[in-house]
Predict the 3D structure of the following.
Amino acid sequence: MTQREVFLVDGARTPFLKVRGRRGPFTPVDLAVQCGRPLLARQPVAPDAYDMVILGCVNVIADEMNPARVAALRLGMGAHTVAFIVQINCGSGMQSIDTAFRYIREGRGDLILAGGAEALSHAPMILRDEAVDWLAGMQRSTGPLATAQNAMQIRPRDLKPVIGLERGLTDPITDLSMGQTAELLAHHFGITRTMADAYAVESHRRLAAAQEAGTLEGEVLPAFDRDGNVYRQDDGVRADSTLDGLGKLDPVFEKPYGQVTAGNASQVTDGASWCVLASGEAVERHGLKPIARIIDSEWAALDPSVMGLGPVMSVTPLMQRQKLGVDDIDLWEINEAFAAQVLACLAAWQDENFCTGVLGLKAAFGAIPRDRLNIHGGAIALGHPVGTSGNRIVLHLANAMAGTGRKRGIATECIGGGQGGAMMLEAM
C-alpha cells in the first residue's frame, strides 16, 4: 500500500500563562476554543468539514471529560465529527499530531485538527486516603451516636489536601520527581549550575527578542477571558534575567548543591495549541497552502530515572532510518523541561562512549549548533503546559523554518515515565 504525504497546513496557540498560585481564567477546553476559533475561521474550509479532532490533555478536569469532544462541539465542528484525547504525558501534544499523521498517511482521513490543551492551574487538589476513609465511614453511619463517634475520629492533618500536580510530577516507579531525574543527568554528564543558568538566560533573551520583533504573530493568538481581559503573549518571559540573578536562587530538588532551580526549569503554565493536518488530496481540493510536510516520527522508551534522555533515544533511530546526520538538520526544537536536561542531551550526542555503547553508533552523533536550537526560546522562558508542549514545538518548528528559509527540522521532547518522542518536518 502506497503511503500518502501528510502536510501541516496551519496552526495557532494561545499565549502560555504562568500559574501564579491560583486558578487561571481558562480551563483546558476554554484554551482550546480560544485559539481554535480564529484558526478555523482563517481556513478556506468549513469547521464541520474535518474528519476528526485529536487533542493531547494530561490533567482532564471533571467538568470536561473528553475535552476533545467538548472543544470540537464548541468550535462548531458538528455532532458527526469524531473527537478523542491522547495521553503520553509530556508528549501528548505531539502524539495528537502523530496519530493524525498516521490516519491521513494510511488513507483513513484527509483533514484532521490535532492539538494539545492543558490548564495546570486547574489541576485537582486530592483528599488524603485517611480523609476518604473517614468520609466513607460518615456516610455509612446510622443514628446520631454512630455519626458523632465517626466524626471524632478525623485528625486535622488528614484534611490537608494533596496537590495533584506535585504527585503527577513524581515518577511512581522510581519515586523521583522530574527535577531529580534532571539532577541525575547533570551529574552523569557534568552539567554545572553555571551552564544551566546560562542556558536559561539565553532562553529568556531569545523569546523576548522574538516577541519584540513580532516573530510569533499569527502563531500566538490573543485570548479573552469572561471579564473582558485580553492576554496577548506568553507572560512568563523575564527579559532582564542575568547569570548573577539566577545564581542567587536556591536549588529546588537537591539542596544545597543541586543544579535545578526555579530559574533554569520550565515554568508551570496554562496553554493550548492546534495544528491543521491534511492529505495532498485535501490540499488540492480546498486550495490549502501548507507550511511543512511531515516526514517521519519516532517514539522511544528508557529507564524513568533518566527520562530526560528521551530526545536522544527517539531522534537517533529516526535519523538512522532517514540516513541523515546532524549537519542535515537545519533547525531543532527540544522541549526545555530543564536546562540541565537539554544540555545533557547535547552532551550525550557528543559522547563517543555513550553513542557507541548505548546508541549503537560507530562514533559520536555530533554537536547541535546553538544557533539551530530553540532559536526563539523554549519552555524555560514560556512554560510547559504538559499536554500542549509537544504540539507547540512542532508548530513553531514549521513556522520557524518558513520564517528563516530553513529546509529540514526536528522537534523532540522528553516524557515523564521514561519515554521520548521526535518528529521530522520539511519546509514547503
User: Anything to note?
Assistant: The first strand starts at residue 6 and ends at 13. The two ends are 25 Å apart (CA to CA).
